[in-house]
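Review session, final week

We close the course with one last complete record, chosen because it touches almost every idea we covered. It is GNAT family acetyltransferase, a protein from Paenibacillus terrae with 172 residues. Go through it on your own first, then we will talk.
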Amino acid sequence: MTVKIIKCSREDLQILQEISIETFNDTFKDQNSPKNMQTYLERAFNSKQLDKELSNVSSEIFFIYFNEELAGYLKVNMNEAQSEKMGDESLEIERIYIKNKYQKHGLGKYLLNKTMEIAMEQNKKKIWLGVWEKNENAIAFYKKMGFVQTGAHSFYMGDEEQIDFIMTKTMI
Ligand SMILES: CC(=O)SCCNC(=O)CCNC(=O)[C@H](O)C(C)(C)COP(=O)(O)OP(=O)(O)OC[C@H]1O[C@@H](n2cnc3c(N)ncnc32)[C@H](O)[C@@H]1OP(=O)(O)O
């Protein structure tokens, strides 16, 4: 098996859009109304929004390939690109999404390790993320990777207010 992680640029917008929509749909469509899903997908993954995110120097997006096939992606945010004001010593994992058929092959852990490398290079003290309280699979993954719950915040899925757990890992 070969695994490669490659940083995205603005030229990757269309592929990023496709994998973002596919993985978000697969993860959440069974627990959310079609209307709320549609509203979220259009807001979060429209071309203008993704181009803005790809152009932001305080964010980095990576694709992960498993045996040359695109299997998932990672988005990390630093400084003012973070979704909450966590300060310059923190780094946010905004998204780790692995396509269904590649889950449980260790790829999430590869992306987490990539995040740790970035955090170390940039002397960050903490890595944090927000994860939907009902996303038990991801919560179990992050706990296994050493994250602990440190708070909660609101998140809007369409017109429904949902609770995200904030989970944090302190860099040693
Ligand atoms: C901030 C956010 O992005 S929140 C949203 C997170 N993303 C999603 O929910 C999208 C759908 N899910 C996924 O993309 C993936 O399942 C992820 C990212 C949650 C996990 O990635 P995977 O590639 O499936 O996990 P991976 O195989 O790397 O597992 C790493 C370790 O976590 C453990 N693990 C993974 N999932 C679980 C689980 N549900 N329960 C317990 N342990 C788990 C594995 O056993 C493995 O342990 P090991 O290191 O002892 O071998």
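Two points worth writing down before the exam:
The longest helix spans residues 13-28.
The pocket of acetyl coenzyme *A is lined by residues 23, 27, 93, 95-98, 103-109, 129, 131, 135, 137-138, 140-141, 144 (CB under 6 Å).
Good luck, everyone.
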